[in-house]
Request: fold
Amino acid sequence: MFKINQYLNKILEIILIILMVFLTLCIIWQVISRYILNEPSTITEELSRFLMIYTCLLGSSYALGKKKHLSIDLIFSYISLENRKKLNTLLNVIMDCYHIWWNKINHQYV
Reply:
C-alpha cells in the first residue's frame, strides 16, 4: 500500500508541475498578447482559470496526503500525544461529515 501511495504521489507531483508550467506560460502569453500585441487572446482567460482550479484541487489533495496541508497547531502543541491522536481523529470525522453533507447539498442543484 505504501508503494502505491508513493507512486500516486509521484504521478500527482508530475501532473502538478506540468499544470503550473502550463498555467505560467498561459498567463505570460495573455499579458504579451494583450499589452504588447494589442490583440488579446480569447482562450487564455478561460484556460488559465480552469488550470488554476485544477492546480488548487490537486495541490490541496497532494498536500493533505503528505500531511503538509496548512494547519494551526496551537492547541496540538499543548496537549499530550494520546489526546492529540483523539483530537485529530475527531477533527477528521467532523471534516468527513461536513464533506458528505456538502456533497449532498451540491447534488441537489446539479
Q: What stands out?
A: The two ends are 35 Å apart (CA to CA). The longest helix spans residues 2-36.
